[in-house]
């Protein structure tokens, strides 16, 4: 397969719409699938087992359109009203009646959530029991990737032993040089990549919603207000921070609006796309160039996450999507290969220590910080100011720097466990009782 075709295939697979944070939505999707397999509507219990990373990212995030947070309400909602054929947009048609039924299901005590003792980053297992029947569903590796289906002891599908991370992708892309990938994207005909603009319009709409109302933490709304007051300048960087944070405010508070995700994360999609929207506001970029910049941003995000994992102890919005946005901005500013490689080193040398402590309204601040770092890194790289090799994790080549980032993330696995313990201690009592590892 030609490299250009491979890139387009990966973009079509990894850049998809999602409603709500992908971790609770994936739990809802698994419950909807299990219900589809089960004939008996009189449910006795729903057992949900998730990996520590899924639990971490679903603990405190809003679930649209319930005004509730956490995985239990997502599980109940998926069972009551989810349609698995809609994929990660299955909560789109949820109405007040389904929300009330889901809350009643939670109150009945039939929904049980526990953490699975697994090294998998993305793992969701749902077991439904009725008086006469049972169903079991497992999602692994990717938020909408069903690897195991079972009904009444009969195995319908079993792909549990397949390699999880990136198993749907041709991993040859992630072994290539960044410069070769950028050059290939430059050669892709506009008609083959024009679909990238859908995500630009979609995420811009979400951002505009966050600028009109004080929602979530109100990070974007507050930045916008201070730009209008003249306290902050109306420049590219502040607009990029404002838009990205505003969209995160909307998404993390659980409003029922679709966002274009990137590599399994809505917030990654916001970070990868909205700085490019802000650049276009200021400099009016032609559609063909916009589409290619968006493709670069998403592909670099996917490239880095192939090394650190879809869910990581590191903030993917910063080290992966933020880096993708930085590459796109550098390219839009006329950057050549050396500048693009330099901007990656600059971002990773700046915010590689940003940890992920779960999805929540405070993510808007991290997205704002990531965008600020991306633009600063781009300006420095264009001026040939790059962190030298040997400084921290920065290696001679950009590819080896990304491999060092992987080593860093693996070395921080203990930190991930500590973060989870802290989060459980502060919030788990409010979202799930009698939590245990299984």
Automatic annotation (TrEMBL):
Pfam families: SDH_alpha (PF03313). Signal peptide: none annotated. InterPro entries: Ser_deHydtase-like_asu, UPF0597. It comes from the Bacteria. One of its GO terms (molecular function) is L-cysteine desulfhydrase activity. One of its GO terms (biological process) is L-cysteine catabolic process to pyruvate. Residues 86-421 form the Serine dehydratase-like alpha subunit domain. Belongs to the UPF0597 family. This is UPF0597 protein SAMN03080606_01566. The lineage of its organism: Bacteria, Bacillati, Bacillota, Clostridia, Peptostreptococcales.
């Amino acid at each position: 397969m030609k490299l250009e075709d491979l890139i387009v295939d990966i973009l079509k697979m990894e850049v998809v719409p999602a409603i709500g944070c992908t971790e609770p939505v994936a739990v809802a999707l698994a419950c909807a699938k299990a219900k589809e397999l089960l004939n008996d509507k009189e449910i006795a219990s729903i057992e949900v087992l998730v990996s520590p990373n899924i639990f971490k990212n679903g603990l405190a995030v809003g679930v649209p359109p319930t005004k509730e947070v956490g995985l239990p309400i997502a599980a109940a909602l998926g069972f009551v009203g989810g349609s698995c054929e809609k994929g990660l947009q299955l909560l789109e048609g949820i109405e007040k009646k389904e929300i009330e039924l889901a809350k009643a299901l939670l109150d009945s005590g039939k929904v049980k959530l526990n953490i699975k003792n697994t090294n998998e980053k993305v793992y969701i297992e749902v077991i439904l029991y009725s008086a006469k029947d049972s169903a079991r569903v497992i999602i692994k590796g990717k938020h909408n990737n069903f690897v195991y289906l079972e009904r009444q002891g009969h195995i319908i599908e079993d792909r549990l032993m397949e390699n999880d991370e990136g198993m749907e992708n041709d991993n040859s892309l992630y072994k290539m040089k960044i410069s070769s990938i950028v050059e290939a994207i430059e050669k892709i005909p506009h008609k083959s990549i024009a679909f990238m603009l859908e995500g630009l319009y979609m995420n811009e709409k979400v951002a505009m919603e966050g600028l009109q109302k004080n929602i979530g933490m109100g990070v974007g709304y507050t930045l916008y207000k201070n730009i209008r007051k003249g306290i902050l300048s109306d420049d590219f960087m502040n607009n990029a921070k404002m838009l990205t944070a505003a969209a995160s405010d909307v998404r993390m508070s659980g409003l029922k609006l679709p966002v274009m995700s990137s590599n399994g994360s809505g917030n990654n999609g916001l970070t990868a796309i909205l700085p490019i929207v802000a650049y276009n506001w200021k400099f009016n970029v032609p559609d063909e160039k916009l589409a290619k910049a968006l493709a670069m941003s998403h592909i670099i995000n996917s490239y880095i996450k192939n090394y650190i994992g879809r869910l990581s102890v590191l903030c993917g919005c910063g080290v992966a999507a933020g880096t993708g946005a930085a590459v796109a901005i550098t390219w839009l500013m006329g950057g050549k290969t050396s500048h693009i490689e330099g901007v990656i080193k600059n971002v990773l040398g700046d915010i590689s220590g940003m940890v992920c402590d779960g999805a929540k309204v405070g993510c808007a601040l991290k997205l704002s910080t990531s965008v600020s770092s991306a633009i600063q890194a781009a300006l420095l790289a264009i001026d040939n100011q790059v962190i030298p090799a040997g400084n921290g994790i920065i290696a001679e080549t950009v590819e080896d720097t990304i491999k060092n980032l992987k080593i860093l993330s693996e070395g921080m696995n203990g930190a991930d466990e500590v973060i989870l313990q802290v989060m459980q201690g502060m919030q788990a009592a409010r979202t799930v009782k009698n939590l245990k590892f299984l």
